[in-house]
Amino acid sequence: MRGTVLVTGGAKRIGREICLRLSEEGFSIAIHYRTSEQEANQLVGDIESNGGKAKSLQCDLNDSDSVRGLIHKANESLGTVVGVVNNASFFSFDRIESLSEELWTEHMRVNVFAPLVLIAELSKSHQEASWVVNVLDFKVESPNADYLSYTGSRFAMYGLTSALAIDLAPRIRVNSVAPGHVLTSDVLDADSLKVVQAQSPLGFGPSANDVSGAVFFLANSPSITGQTIFVDSGERFRQMEKDPAFDKE
Predict the structure, then answer these.
(1) 121 lies in a domain?
(2) What span, in angstroms and rounded, lies between the C-alpha atoms of 157 and 108?
(3) Cα(first)–Cα(last) distance of the chain, in Å?
(4) Using only C-alpha atoms, what is the Rg of the chain?
(5) How many domains does the chain have?
(6) Residue 87, in any domain of the structure
(7) Residue 127's CATH number
(8) Sheet holding 81-86, edge to edge
């Protein structure tokens, strides 16, 4: 085994694909979840049935004290943590006219402060050649005013990726992956997703496997730090005034 990787929000969707890919590449996987216990445990079983090692770890990323214990729990259950994938996110709609302190604060707590706590705890381990991959959003290069607090949190981690890459070198590399529209959501059904993906410069959208491949590439690239890979089929070049969920043109 190549060490343990903690993947936040690892039980479902893109997080699940990241866990499976990193397990296939020889890492032990600490699968963080908040409420998806059944899916997390099922993923543990899937990984173990393929000869890998995995453990599910529950934590509410709103609770900073609980977040601080995640690295320690992963170390105890699977062995030394060498990598962290900050994949989990809080995603709720707002605009400037509906801005609230509560919604802004929750986005920042889950999407920015919790990842920073995990990076800080990783840095305390004094493990050489460790790495972090922050999963962001193509919106950092193609912003609009929809999902304003969410977008603000992504911009924060986009900038902090560079700052921490400088600060934590040479022991810890810090990079990011910024996906485009990969999967359906509560506001983007399958038909709408196909339309959005078809409008990208490449004419199709990225897959969850593409994102997990980019995460592994950064995990396995000892000379790369402070970089953001956009896995978006060029979607960031299609500047949009509205989020595609609301853009009917």
Answers:
(1) yes
(2) 10
(3) 50
(4) 17
(5) 1
(6) yes
(7) 3.40.50.720
(8) 54-58, 28-33, 4-7, 81-86, 130-135, 172-179, 228-231
